[in-house]
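Tokens as discussed.
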């Protein structure tokens, strides 16, 4: 948990970090209307690096586009991975920062310069100080999306993002998605202990509106203004930290498993900031020591607890320091990186609540926590963050065991059931299940319900973010979802129509499709980077067969469903060509044949051609 070279642990050497820090501050100090970032190819002792350094803005209207927190949904066309896949929930992002990056993306040679840098095969680093750091984050995510998504056969070196005093820019989905994609390690954020900027967006604009203009002027390197009005600085610091306390207290209650109904009531009436940290945070305690934290829940707690006052009389001094530290990263890192006094806060659930001289590692960690001014309460919050992470891993172990104990045998039974229907009965398993004439049909229904229970438990955990962030990106579970959906969803559709639920509830796909199929379909679509959701899949086409048969059989106008029929024909050909579906699955099934027999001659001929080699069709 303690010691070791920082460069070896995070993937970037110390000399690179120092140089990148200098370039970040250079961009921030030399910002012009026309120069929103600088691109340099730099030679450092450890190699050649392509560095993109972004300038920031001290215009409050670019931080808070609207009240109270200025957030909006992320543009998923640029950042398709920044969402919760199963929940189909897009990340929230600061609208002002997003608009600024959109301008950089569309109005500058950014894309072509990144393409050139990536093509050179050297390490690319995006960096920025203050709100310039937010641009570096967007640039890194875009590059990861563009060049390192799973569909790419040739992948370059992953880019790094190194920020200094970065504000928070997005909600919890930034952390969730970056960990799921295994990108979190590429984002490295340096934060000085009292720097106010990483905490600003935890406060609503209304609480700092009267002072933010003056404070931003103090923070702007183009203004040679000293902090003459300590009252404004103290007021600003107090307001930001008061709101930070609200956010972190609410988060701590959740971490500790509070079931108090008052917690939910408060959340409904008090509009808390949506912004959350993500990536690797490196806290500089001001004494030359660097503390590395990768747990985003723990980082949020540290943003509050590291800036606490031991005495109210300290307020004017600490408030001034919180502003001055924002411009002090170059000097601080020059000292700290040279000293190599690094502590890694891992296994948070085992953090010491006090010093224990019996173990040197424990003593080192405890001293580091003391150096950040962490109280016993703060340490308990960090422990709770570690316990939550550990509990998510236990939850995954639990459902893995349940899958092996229950789902594997049930899937095997249904595979055999499907084969017996097609081979022995000469009919499809869809219609056999729908009719429910024999004992094995009944048993198939029992297995369907067992599998529904297993998968519904998985989905409920995902909805509550109770599984590791990496879960939905794991190939093993994506494949399990494919197999489950293709084998079992036809039985759900058969059961739905057997009980005539379509007549009172409506179409299966729009009104009744269970989340267990929608979630697992989205996993696959994301893994394949499908540009948009597919309305009918190889597992749900039976619902379309039923709907089309009902429409045509009732003598309604065929022209109104003609395109749907033709799309189904194209899809069946595609699925069978790609072995996602076997022709025997539907060609001998009475439900499919009933639709086939009432189709117009032209459409019937197309299906006949598709099934020309199927014996008995």
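Sequence:
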């Amino acid at each position: 948990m303690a010691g070791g070279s920082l460069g070896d642990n995070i993937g970037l050497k110390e000399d690179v970090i120092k140089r990148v820090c200098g370039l970040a501050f250079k961009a921030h100090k030399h910002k012009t209307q026309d120069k929103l970032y600088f691109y340099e190819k730099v030679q450092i002792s450890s190699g050649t690096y392509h560095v993109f350094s972004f300038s920031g803005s001290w215009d409050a209207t670019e931080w808070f586009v609207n009240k109270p927190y200025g957030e909006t949904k992320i543009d998923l066309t640029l950042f398709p991975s920044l969402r919760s896949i199963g929940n189909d929930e897009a990340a929230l992002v600061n609208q002002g920062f997003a608009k600024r990056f959109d301008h950089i993306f569309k109005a500058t040679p950014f894309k072509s310069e990144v393409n050139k840098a990536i093509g050179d095969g050297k390490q690319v680093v995006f960096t920025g100080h203050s709100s310039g750091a937010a641009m570096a984050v967007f640039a890194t995510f875009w590059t990861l999306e563009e060049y390192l998504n799973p569909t790419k056969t040739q992948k370059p070196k992953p880019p790094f993002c190194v920020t200094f005093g970065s504000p928070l820019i997005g909600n919890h989905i930034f952390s969730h998605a970056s960990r799921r994609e295994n990108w979190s390690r590429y984002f490295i954020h340096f934060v000085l202990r009292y720097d106010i900027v990483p905490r600003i967006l935890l406060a609503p604009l209304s609480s700092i509106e009267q002072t933010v203009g003056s404070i931003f002027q103090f923070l702007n390197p183009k203004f040679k203004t000293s902090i003459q009005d300590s009252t404004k600085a103290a007021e600003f610091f107090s307001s930001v930290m008061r709101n930070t306390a609200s956010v972190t207290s609410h988060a701590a209650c959740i971490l500790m498993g509070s079931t108090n109904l008052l917690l939910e009531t408060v959340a409904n009436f008090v509009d808390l900031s949506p912004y959350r940290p993500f990536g690797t945070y490196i806290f500089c305690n001001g004494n030359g020591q660097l503390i590395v934290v990768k747990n985003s829940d723990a980082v949020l707690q540290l943003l509050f607890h590291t800036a606490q006052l031991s005495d109210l009389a300290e307020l004017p001094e600490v408030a001034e320091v919180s502003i001055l530290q924002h411009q002090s990263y170059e000097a601080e890192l020059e000292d700290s990186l040279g000293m190599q006094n690094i502590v890694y806060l891992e296994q948070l659930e085992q953090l010491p609540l006090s010093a224990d001289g019996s173990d040197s590692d424990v003593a080192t960690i405890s001293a580091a926590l003391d150096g950040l001014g962490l109280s016993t309460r703060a340490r308990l919050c960090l422990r709770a963050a570690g316990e939550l992470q550990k509990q998510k891993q236990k939850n995954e172990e639990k459902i893995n065991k349940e899958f092996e104990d229950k789902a594997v045998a049930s899937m095997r039974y249904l595979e055999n059931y499907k084969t017996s229907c097609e081979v022995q009965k000469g009919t499809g398993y869809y219609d056999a299940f729908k009719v429910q004439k024999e004992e094995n049909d009944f048993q198939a229904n029992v297995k369907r319900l067992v599998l529904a229970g297993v998968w519904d438990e998985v989905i409920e955990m995902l909805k509550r973010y109770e599984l590791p962030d990496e879960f939905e990106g794991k190939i093993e579970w994506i494949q399990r979802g494919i197999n489950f959906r293709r084998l079992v969803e036809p039985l759900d559709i058969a059961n739905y129509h057997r009980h005539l639920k379509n007549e009172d509830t409506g179409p299966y796909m729009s009104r009744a499709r269970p989340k267990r199929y929608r979630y697992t379909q989205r996993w696959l679509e994301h893994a394949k980077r499908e540009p948009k959701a597919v309305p009918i899949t190889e597992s749900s086409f039976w619902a379309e067969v039923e709907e089309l048969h009902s429409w045509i059989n009732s003598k309604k106008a065929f022209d109104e469903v003609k395109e749907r029929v033709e799309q189904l024909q194209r899809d069946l050909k595609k699925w069978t060509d790609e072995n996602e579906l076997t022709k025997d699955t539907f060609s001998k099934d009475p439900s499919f044949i009933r639709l086939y027999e009432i189709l117009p001659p032209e459409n019937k001929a197309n299906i006949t051609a598709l099934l020309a080699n199927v014996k008995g069709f």
